[in-house]
Amino acid sequence: MISHHPAVARSPKARKEVRFFDARFGDDVSKLAADEYARYFPRPDGSIAGEWTPGYMHDYWTPRGLAEVAPDARLLVMLRDPVERYQSGLALAFVHNAPRHAIVASDQAGRGFYHGALVRLLRQFPRSQVLVLQMERCIASPEGELARTYEFLGLDPIPAPDDLSAVVHGDHVRPALSNEHRRLLVEAYADDVAALLADFPELDVSLWPNFAHLYG
Predict the structure, then answer these.
(1) The model scores a pTM over 0.85
(2) d(Cα 86, Cα 107) in Å, to the nearest integer?
């Protein structure tokens, strides 16, 4: 929907999940890397371009690398109920033939600790350059959240496309959670969600059914 805007340039190289920093963990990001990253985003004057790689939120080394190669970038962060994200992440991992192993479950659970990830990001970027969105709110109010995103990116408002509410792709079949498994996940995430709501009061916990009863 962002790329629907006429002032957003599409680059064949800037596909979803560029994963530019995957091979650069633990290393200083050089000027050559900054030049290489910039080549992903050729665009006419007056337009903007970008990419979308979910792993950047999770990988602890990426905020520093981003600050080196794109210090003026505006960053979009999309959150969802962390228990629902865990289920969805497991389903996707299994589709890609990940083993049904505790290491895979632990990795997916770790990706739901959003507050720590945002703290790392905000050590490198000012709050004014970060927009935190909720997937559930984008589904419930797509026109309003798209307009909010356009404004954050400095784009002029335009009419929303007719197919704004169309499902682009649905979740894969998600593994069921027993009541005890769900309880343990909620317990594990509870302090992180509390810190998240304290620092980002724009988040609506009522949209996260696993936590609304705790903080609603």
Answers:
(1) yes
(2) 9
